[in-house]
Amino acid sequence: MNVIILGIESSCDDTSAAIFKNGKILSNCVANQDAHKQYGGIVPEVASRAHQINIIPVVDKAIKDAGIDKHKIDAIAFTLGPGLIGSLIVGVSFAKSFALSLEIPMIEVNHMQAHVLAHFAEDPKPEFPFLCLTVSGGHTQIVLVRDFLDMELIGTTIDDAAGEAFDKTGKLLGLDYPAGPLIDKLAKKGNPVFKFTEPKIQDLDFSFSGLKTSILYFLKKQLKENPDFIKENLNDICASVQDRIVSILINKLKMAVSKTGIKEICIAGGVSANSALRATLETTGKEEGWNTFIPNFEFCTDNAAMIAVTGYYKFLQKEFTDQSISPVARYQL
Ligand code: KG4
Ligand code: ZN
C-alpha cells in the first residue's frame, strides 16, 4: 500500500512540516524562531504570530522537497498537544483547512508519543518492548513502549523538566535562551569540578528544581567572594551542571531497567541532542549490556517527521479525527 502522510508540528516555538511515505521520511522542514532570545524564554504571543507567518512556506517547502504532488497526500497528521495553546491553534487550524481543501482525513497526534516514535523515522529501529527516556524543555519521562500506540508512563518529573534545568541554569549564567545547546558546547572545554548533590526522589520520578536552587546559592556565594567567578569558571560550571543532570537521568534509567528487565533503551526529545548524555548512554549501555538507540539530531528536537511517523501508524489503525477537534494544552501520554 502506498501511503503518504503530511505531518505538521507547531506545539512550541518550531514550525515544522514533513512528508513520510511508506516508512521513509522524504522531507522534514523546520523554521526556528530566534525572536525569543532577547526575552530569555519563549513568549507565547510571539510564538503564535511567528507560526502564522511560517506555516504556509514550511508546508510548501516540505511538499516541494519531497518531490510529491499535494493531491497524492493520503492524510494530514498534526500535533493536538501538549503545548502552548496559541501555537497549537495555528497548526491545528492549518491542518483542518488543508484537509478540507484536499478532501483527505486528519489524524491527531500526541507530541510526547511522537517524540518516542521519532525512533521509527530512520534505521536502526528498536524492538518492542523498549524503554524511552524523553527529555525536552517541558517534559522528562520514562516511557514503557509495548507497541507503536501502546505506551505507559512509568516515571516523570515532579517539578521542572531536564531541558528547563539547562535553560534556567543558563539564565543564571547570563546565557541566551535556549541555553541547553550552549551549555553543551561550553562544557566540552571544562571539567565537572563543582559538585551539586543528586536529589533523592522516589521510584522512577525526577526533580530538577532543587538542583536549580543549589546552583543559584552556589553562584551567589562564589560571586560574593569573586565578582568575576562566572566569567572565570564558565566552562567548568557548565560541565558540572551538565554532569549532574546527565547522572540524574542515567541513574533513573538504570533503575527502570532493573525494575522492568527491559534492556532495549531509547532517548528522545530536545535534551537527547546533548553530547554528554549521548556519550554516557552509549558507555553505560556497553557496561550494562543494553541495546541503545540515539536519534539523529534533527529527530531529537521538535520536528514534524515524528508527527508524520506517528500519523502513519494511526492511519494503519484508521484512527482519524474530524473538524470538531480543538487543541489540548495539557495532553497526557
Ligand atoms: O524537544 P524540544 O525541542 O522542545 C520541547 O518540546 O520542549 O526540547 C527543547 C529543549 C530546550 O530546553 C533546550 O535547551 C534543550 O531541549 N536542548 C538541549 C540541547 N539541545 C536542545 N539541552 C542540552 N544539550 C543540548 N545539546
Ligand atoms: Zn518536544
Q: Can you give a write-up of this model?
A:
The chain has 333 residues and is of the alpha/beta class. Helix 3 crosses helix 9 (305-316), helix 4 (162-172) runs parallel beside helix 6 and helix 5 crosses helix 7 (229-260). The protein contains nine helices and ten strands. The chain is globular, with a radius of gyration of 20 Å. Strands 3-2-1-4-5 form a five-stranded mixed beta sheet, sandwiched between helices. The protein has a five-stranded mixed beta sheet with strand order 8-7-6-9-10, sandwiched between helices. Strand 1 and strand 2 form a beta hairpin. Residues 111, 115, 136, 269, 302 line the site of zinc ion.
Give a summary of the structure in a few sentences.
Helix content is 43%, strand content 19%. The protein is built from nine helices and ten strands. Helix 1 packs parallel to helix 2 (85-102) and helix 3 (111-117) packs across helix 9.
Q: Helix and strand layout, with pairings?
A:
Elements: E1 4-9, E2 15-21, E3 24-31, H1 44-66, E4 75-81, H2 85-102, E5 106-110, H3 111-117, E6 130-135, E7 140-147, E8 150-156, H4 162-172, H5 180-187, H6 209-225, H7 229-260, E9 264-268, H8 275-288, E10 291-293, H9 305-316
Parallel strand pairs: 1-4, 4-5, 6-9, 9-10
Antiparallel strand pairs: 1-2, 2-3, 6-7, 7-8
The chain binds 5'-O-[(R)-(carboxyoxy)(hydroxy)phosphoryl]adenosine (KG4) and zinc ion (ZN).
